[in-house]
Amino acid sequence: MIIDTNVYSAIDMGVQSATDILDNAAELLIPLPVVAELRFGFVRGSRRAENESRLQTLLSQPNVQVLCPTLQTSVIYAELQLICVQKRARIVAKRHMDCRFGQGDWRHIGDF
Description:
The protein folds into 2 domains: 5-67, no CATH class; 71-108, no CATH class. With 112 residues, the protein is α+β, with helices and mostly antiparallel strands. It starts with a helix and ends with a strand. Residues 94-109 have low confidence and may be disordered. It is 53% helix and 19% strand. It has helices at 5-13, 16-24, 32-44, 48-59, 71-86, and strands at 28-31, 64-67, 89-93, 98-101, 105-108. The strands form 2 sheets. The protein has a 3-stranded antiparallel β-sheet with strand order 3-4-5, with helices on one face. Strands 1-2 form a two-stranded parallel sheet.
């Protein structure tokens, strides 16, 4: 299961549906940009050390892995961007590769 900042926040706040994801996932994957976004929020907030500690607790679990971009990420991005261009769509979230096809037709086409 790949999570984003919204899912992490929900897990951190104890939202049942999110904690169920954590409890039932054989593997929890967190893209490096998500970790960076979280830490940016931490440094802007008043509970930096507390938030960082909770993140470290999650990251230290054996089933949690941080996904780091590689040069292959750029190849995948280029190919997905081409698909969107060919279908007159656009990528609306760089790390999640959501494409919009026409009016309101959204498709999640991959994570990296």
